[in-house]
Amino acid sequence: MLSDPLFILVTLACFGVLVVLLMGINSFRIGGEYNRKNANKFMRWRLLAQFVAVLLILVFVLFRRQAGG
């Protein structure tokens, strides 16, 4: 499975969600003007990254189910 390009893409997408989430948490940690300026931007990026990751996971499951059955 580790050599499957779609699995690698799903893993990278999930890692991207984690990175954006940590950027948002760091924005809350810094607080002040930086947080007011960037909090919504990081939330939108995270939602978009999660949407892409979930779509890729669904495509991966669909292809694996078809290949196995």
What class, by secondary structure content? mainly alpha
The percent range for strand residues is under 5%
Number of beta-strand segments? 0
The low-confidence runs, each spanning 5 or more residues with pLDDT under 50, are none
Helix tally equals 2
Rg (CA only): 16 Å
Q: What number of structural domains do the residues give?
A: 1
Helix and strand sequence: HH
Give the overall shape: elongated
Tell me what the structure shows.
With 69 residues, the protein is mainly α. It has one domain. The protein has 2 helices and no strands. It has helices spanning 5-30, 32-68. Helix 1 packs antiparallel against helix 2 (32-68).
Key phrases:
2 helices; Twin transmembrane helix small protein; 69 residues; 0% strand; 91% helix; elongated; mainly alpha
Topology overview:
Layout: H1 5-30, H2 32-68
Helix pairs in contact: 1-2
